[in-house]
Amino acid sequence: MNILGELALWVALPVTAWGMALGYLGGRQERGDLVLSAERTVYATFILILLASLGIVDNFLNDRFEYWYTANYSSRNLFVFYKVAGLWAGQRGSLLFWLLLLSFFSALAVWSNQRKNREFMPYVVGTLMGLQLFFIVVLLFAEVNPYEKLGFTPVDGAGLNPQLQNYWMSFHPPTLYLGFTAFTVPFAFAMAALMNGRLDSRWIEVTRKWILLSWFFLSVGIVLGMRWAYEELGWGGYWFWDPVENASLLPWLTATAFLHSIQIQENRGMLKVWNMALVLGTFVLTVFATFLTRSGLIESVHTFAENTTIAYIFLTFMASIVAWGAVMVIYRLPKLQSENQIQSFLSRESAFLFNNLILVAATFAVAWGTLLPLISEGFFGEQITVGPPFFNRINVPFGIALLALMGIGPVIAWRRASARNLKKNFLWPLGVGLGVTAVLWLTGVRHGLALTTFGLSAFVLYIIVVEFWKGTKARARIEGEGFAAAFYHLVSRNRRRWGGYIVHVGVVLIFAAFAAEPYYVEVQQTMQPGEVTELESPLGGTYRLTYESTSSNVRDPDQNLAWQAVALVMVERNGKTIGPMRTEKRGYIRPEGQQSTEVGIHSRPLEDLYITLADVDLEGIILENDPNAQAATFSFMIKPLVGWIWAGLFVLMAGSLIGLWPSAEKVRAPTVASKATVADPAPAGD
Amino acid sequence: MALLGALILVAAVVGFILQPVLQGHWASLRHQDDEMTEAEARRRVTLLALRDAEYDFATGKLDVDDYTALKRQLSAEALAVLQELEASEGSDLVEAEIAAARKELEEEVRCDTCRHHNPTGSRFCGACGAALVPQETAGAP
């Protein structure tokens, strides 16, 4: 299997080159046989890369440590599940995995367009195969071949970093990669449109679901990463503005902008150049995020640095894509003229436009802060790094503005809205927002930013609920339907809009969770068994934490543990027993000397209790088994609303799925004529 | 054994890829009949905009003046697109659509009480005499 896998990777090299050449050539010369052959290379490459990936998994499962990659990322005692996940544990495997997903999506794109969008397909195939060719060349020739052999066979592998041995970690990278690679399809269609000259909204319409799919996976992947950081890194936060986090956020920001701006192009035929720029920028940022994660280019909590020459290869690749895209856009400028202008400052178009400007500004700000160490080193010879305060100061106002727009946008009509209507439509939502703010203020919430965010959140939620209500009512009246049927049809006939509103609800929940940060409580306490610490929640309620004992285990090869100190804390809330919570310190057999802290989390709808074992006399407990060495230092934290992030994710996923659900609609939309005749067969006086 | 597997793999891949070129199998390169052309796509967008305007009016985001002006403009656009389509296709279907769009233009305001269609700008229903106020939605609760 492993030999076949390595061979498959080599065979894929000429196959993708052939596919790229024939795709473009077949498109230019209008030779259907060449195009068909090129399309077949897409399927063949997927099978070949699948074989290559299975070969790597096979290496992990069979402990073949003669391979560099297996030796560095696995060990005999690694849990089988993580051996399979070894495919994306390191840079080399990640690149192959990226390629696997890309080849899968490419095959899916070709398969689903066998009888549609034929004028795009030659160039789509050429572009997709060109990108895959690049990745295969990198894998084979840039010293990152996952099939590279060591020349000797170590007895055991170095083991997987235990921080990566976490189920969230097993899903977080693949989900992000799904998001990154799915965006390649819209990019390929955009390039195809530039090449074949069909520059109306068709390429957007065709790839709309792909864009949403990519955005969906990016969002889920980012939040899963937050969950991983929250559980595994032990400092109680979920976002640190770490370069790798930022790298995944950048394409999300531009993809979010793109999701909104394509609606202006579809509805109004405007922003064509802008959309080209966004699709190009987002794609390049997905590539940037992919390689930054494992490149060691910028110091980060999760770069497991290996090989930096690859960074330059990727930078060159990204630069050439941008250059090529820019040249094509300039060449096609005459065909990219706007068909309309914005008619009024007060219109949904302009709300979308503001949304785009803010998102792009945030992208630049985050990119600047992330790349500053590199830029400053290049120009001044020393690395200047900026931390969370910089990112927060810049992005919080952007976030607030976006939150406000989520409320304003839905209420403003397309094309033009009159000030009188706005006043009428905003009166109640504003009242609700201010009312919530006032109530919170009276109950003791005095943090300005938190108040603003909660008030705006109430404003947005109220508007969305009213939108659903009014829409259902209007439909029930116009079509003469019952409310349930009207609601169902309202959503199902325009799933993008209503799914979008539901996504907004999820985002609002997540924003509200962010805003609760000033109310986090943290107490550090050194305790002896039997001692009690009391903790007041900012939301009311008292936790009574009784330290029971710390026990130890030594050497458990099945779990890869060298030693383990487990502290038990009995938790009561308002006199009611919640139960014991455990927090641990662990030392691992492989990689040798690696330690970690396991946190204890008790989640409630409005807050989490988060405890970590900050310090304990490891020598006394583990080596000497000393019964008097039980003193332990804990960090007890209360985190209001943290659970809303995960809840918000589920709402966001539900909204996205409404938008993604395959529609039963025919290609031809129902026309006015048929609708009018069906709805009203005999108008009076006809 | 490994060599045999490798040979089979390579042969299968090469055969699969080259077969269309060698045997002259063609993939289609033009858009299919059931797909929208640029003009058809524009028509759809205009019709969707009409639907949006209606919805915005019904939910109180557009007032009656803006709505009537917008609707006239959108209907004219739709008509232009439809005529363009007719020129390129000349099908009965398009004829029917144009007729329907014209009718829409002429018969704009529907009476809430008796569902009678009244010409644009009517203040009172021609059939039952009810006042044709803009459909005031019961704003926010």
How do you describe this structure in short?
The complex is a heterodimer of chains A (686) and B (141). By secondary structure, chain A is α+β, with helices and mostly antiparallel strands.
Rg from Cα of chain B = 27 Å
Class by alpha and beta content of chain A: alpha+beta
Strand content of chain B: under 5%
Per DSSP, what share of the residues of chain A sits in E-state strands of 2 or more residues? 5-15%
Straight-line N-to-C gap of chain B: 77 Å
- Residue-averaged pLDDT of chain A: 88
Poorly predicted residue ranges of chain A: 300-306, 665-686
Largest sheet of chain B: 2 strands, antiparallel
The shape of chain A is globular
The ordered H/E elements of chain A are: HHHHHHHHHHHHHHHHHHEEEEEEEEHEHH
Order of helices and strands of chain B: HHHHEE
Q: Helical element count of chain B?
A: 4
Strand order of the largest sheet of chain B: 1-2
- Tell me the structural class of chain B: mainly alpha
Question: What characteristics describe this protein?
Answer:
heterodimer, A: 686 residues, alpha+beta, Four Helix Bundle (Hemerythrin (Met), subunit A), 4 domains, five-stranded antiparallel sheet, four-stranded antiparallel sheet, 9 strands, disordered C terminus, B: 141 residues, mainly alpha, 60% helix
3D architecture notes:
The complex is a heterodimer of chains A (686) and B (141). Chain A is of the alpha+beta class and 686 residues long. Chain A folds into 4 domains: 1-165, Four Helix Bundle (Hemerythrin (Met), subunit A) (Up-down Bundle), CATH 1.20.120; 169-297 and 304-336 and 355-368; 418-516 and 655-660; 519-640, Sandwich (Tick-borne Encephalitis virus Glycoprotein, domain 1), CATH 2.60.98. Chain A is 62% helix and 12% strand. Chain A has 21 helices and 9 strands. Mean pLDDT of chain A is 88; it is low at 300-306 and 665-686. Chain B has a domain at 38-107. Chain B has 4 helices and 2 strands; from the N terminus they run H-H-H-H-E-E. A two-stranded antiparallel sheet of chain B has the order 1-2. In chain B, strand 1 (107-110) and strand 2 form a beta hairpin.
